[in-house]
Amino acid sequence: MQKTQKRTIAVLDLGTNTFRILLAQPHRKFLFKALYEEKVYVRIAKTGIDYIGQAAYRRALEAMERFEKIIKKHNVTEVYAFATEGMRRASNSEQLIAEVKARYGISIRRISGDMEATFIYHGVQQVFDLGTHPHLLMDIGGGSTEFIIANATQIFWKQSFAIGGTVLKQQFHQQEPLSPQDLEVLINHLNQVLLPFWKAAKKFGTIDTLVGTSGTFSSINKMAAAAASLTLSPEQHIYPIQLTTATALAEHLLHTTLEERLSVPGLEPERAELISVAFILVQLVLERLHISHLFYSSYAIKEGILWYVFKHPQLMEKEGLSFHID
Length: 326
Fold this sequence. Notes:
Strand order of the largest sheet: 8-7-6-9-11-10
Number of helices: 13
Mean pLDDT: 94
CATH topology of the largest domain: Nucleotidyltransferase, domain 5
Order of helices and strands: EEEHEHHEHEEEHHHEHEHHHEHH
Number of domains: 2
CATH superfamily of the largest domain: Exopolyphosphatase. Domain 2
Shape: globular
CATH class of the largest domain: Alpha Beta
Structural class: alpha/beta
Helix content: 40-55%
CATH architecture of the largest domain: 2-Layer Sandwich
Strand content: 15-25%
Largest sheet: 6 strands, mixed
Number of strands: 11
């Protein structure tokens, strides 16, 4: 009798800075078992968010070629590939998507910021008890930042803003270190853009817990761990971050040059260019909302997709979350 092939899912998160792949299989005890993960720094918006430059285009194709080999090697049965703000904004993203399909047989779907926020929520929800009171979830990408106010049972409010790390760096961080004048202009800009969020946060009263996901918060967590001489475990998906440590790191990074940031323990070199402006956004939220508890979640968009795929496939169509399955 021929052995039935086990269902193996590949989730591709094609972000503005980073392309990521996660391979997973269904699990009896847990929602899924992760088989393999990898990330490639592609930086498709390195020369601007509205057009993917020649070098970035080539890096994107090289990353997708690598992912195709990984997919074939692991006998993947379903592929869910989705792209976020960088691909939403770039005028030549359709050309890239078509070329990826033609070369590697992978269909990419551009998703909205609202859909991103939904995925983030269902990712975090798997590893963090959001309780009954409103919590803030925040994901700072390269092109956009998602804000979600939610508890364990529902999303109260969510919105995606075009204030990702790459966008902020290109607009406001033109000299090293960031000048006091540029800092003031940046904070004024953020306060203005985030007016809908400030209004929503006020409506829900006290929100004292922030759960951050993805690159910027991962960097904060790694730097905080390095400062405390702690070793991070890949088996742990939620980390508390001391606010005093985060504030000290933010203050230090604000006054450093790129060269100095490249030597900060725990900070990946690829994150050094963008971390200052992204951290300013984090600090602004911490201060304005008087956050008293800060956490980093390694579960975010990819894991949120798997929540739908493995647990609630019937909701994929209902909520407009269906993907092409190769």
